[in-house]
Structures are given as C-alpha cells and as structure tokens.
Amino acid sequence: MSDCGCHMEAKNAAERKTLRILLLLNGLMFVVGIVAGIIANSTALVADSLDMLADASVYMISLYAVGKSARDKNRAATLSGIFQITSAMMVVVDVIRRFVWGSSPESGWMMATALLSLIVNSYGLYLLSKHRRGEVHMRASWIFTQNDVIANFSVMIAGFLVTLFNSRFPDLIVGLGIASLVVWGGISIIRDAQHDRKMQKVV
C-alpha cells in the first residue's frame, strides 16, 4: 500500500472513531435530556435534547460517508442539514404548544442537565477540533457540535432567569432561540455542501 493510501486509511479510521464516540454520547444525552425536559416541563431542555437526537443522526450519516466518494459525503452533509432543520421545526411546535397551554419549568433540572450536556459537548468539540477543516461531512459535525455548546449555555442562562424572574418566558424564548440556531446551522451546512458540489463540477 502506498504512503498516500496508508495516510487516507489512517484518516478514515480516526474519523470513524471520533464519530462513533460522538454518536454514543449524543444518543445517551438525548435520552437524559428528553426525560429531564419532560420532568422539568422545559421547552428549552426539550429543544436541546431534540438537537442531540438530530446530531446523533448527523454523526450516523457522517459515519456512513467516511471513506466514500466526495459525492456521497456531500449528500451526507445535505441530509444532515435537513435533519437539523426538521428537528428545529419540532421545537417551534413545542414552544407554541407550551405558550398556548402554559408551562412551569423547573430551573434546577434545567441548569443541571444543561451543565452535563455542556461537558459532553465540549468533549465532543475537542474530539472534532482536528477534523474541523476536513471534508464537508466532518465540517457539518463541527458546526452542529459548536451550536450544541451554545445551546447548553443558553439553557443554563434560561434556568437562572426562570428563577430570577419567576417566569416561564425565558424558557420559551431560549427554546425558540435554540430552534433558530439549529435552523441556521442546517442552512449553513447545506450551503457549504452546495458550494462543494459546484467546486467538484469545476474541477
């Protein structure tokens, strides 16, 4: 096997290892987050957990794309963006439901769960840092994990504000904010994939 082939195989193996770890962590945190969101009656936590589920789907798609053609990686990134936007729409529906029917979010559950998610996602971001300038499927994973860290901080702030103002609205506002962040991330990676596709045609 040539040096180039060995380098590529090592690169693919490293990507697979990173994505498998991220897939496992995000799957576990989705379960933790959705249970905590239901117990805490928090739309921000539900939004965060659905984002985790969408990210787990992204990592699974990206894992499939490792070692595949540039076209397959491009399709994987595009599908990842669609998953993100779809999960964000589900969050918007939950925000509207809770706004109409009311909610009483538990700030302690919100902040504790968000802190745990922040630790997990920060570790994920560390693992992805070496791949963040790689091919489009790995750039997608980097973008979405960055958004997760921002979302975790936002939920912690929302929990604090819920207690400070004795109001459910910080929870609803942050839930809507997370949805907007996820939509933007989805659109960004779809645009990135489209740009890659055009560059491939030029080459």
UniProtKB/TrEMBL annotation:
Highest taxon of source: Bacteria
Major localization class: membrane
Entry annotated with the keyword tRNA-binding: no
SUPFAM superfamilies, sorted: Cation efflux protein transmembrane domain-like
Cell location: Membrane
Domain Cation efflux protein transmembrane: 20-193
Keywords attached to this entry: Membrane, Transmembrane, Transmembrane helix
Gene3D superfamilies: Cation efflux protein transmembrane domain (1.20.1510.10)
Membrane topology: Multi-pass membrane protein
InterPro entries: Cation_efflux (IPR002524), Cation_efflux_TM (IPR058533), Cation_efflux_TMD_sf (IPR027469), CDF/SLC30A (IPR050681)
Bilayer-crossing regions: 21-40, 46-66, 78-96, 108-128, 149-166, 172-190
Annotated protein name in UniProt: Cation transporter
Organism: Pseudanabaena mucicola FACHB-723
